Amino acid sequence: MSDDTPDSLIPYDEIVQEALRAVVGRVLGEIQHGGGELPGNHHFYITFKTGAAGVSIPTHLRERFPDEMTIVLQNKFWDLEVDEHGFSVGLSFNQIPAKLVIPFAAITAFVDPAVDFGLQFQAKVPDMAPEGHDDAENDSQDQGATAAASEDGSNVVTVDFGRKK
């Protein structure tokens, strides 16, 4: 492609983002239909914009994570419900149970470190300057695991449709 390529009248970037978010929905839907049990060593790190439309989290979590939050679905989660727009799940934060409702449009990253798979998304919220925040502390037996993708980027799909000027 060259610098004089005309702007597309077809929103390819939005179509691809929607399709990739559908992958997250399908994976979570299969977990829900399988009784809420994760197969093998699979576990998920899901990062989302806390200020996105439709996100519902307890006030103390929104205050602690005003921009973005990462949750872990591994050992201690319950009531996973998935629909075409997003999902809800019960998690414990410092031994306090909470229900989170997260639209797929709010998700910015989905990682399954067990198989070195990850997706990153463009945020669908108004641009905000990112603020620093603490790491998620929802209860997990695997506190030493990280959500970082492998250094060589294998099996990580990043979609960035920035245009050259």
List strands and helices in order, with pairings.
Layout: H1 12-33, E1 44-49, H2 59-64, E2 68-73, E3 77-82, E4 86-93, E5 96-103, E6 107-112, E7 117-120, E8 156-158
Structure description:
The protein is of the alpha+beta class. It has a domain at 12-124: SspB-like (SH3 type barrels), CATH 2.30.30.220. Helices cover 17% and strands 28% of the residues. It is built from 2 helices and 8 strands. It has helices spanning 12-33, 59-64, and strands spanning 44-49, 68-73, 77-82, 86-93, 96-103, 107-112, 117-120, 156-158. The strands form 2 sheets. Strands 2-1-6-7-8 form a 5-stranded mixed β-sheet, covered by helices on one side. Strands 3-4-5 form a 3-stranded antiparallel β-sheet. A hairpin with a 2-residue loop joins strand 4 and strand 5. The longest helix has 22 residues, at 12-33. It is globular, with a radius of gyration of 17 Å.
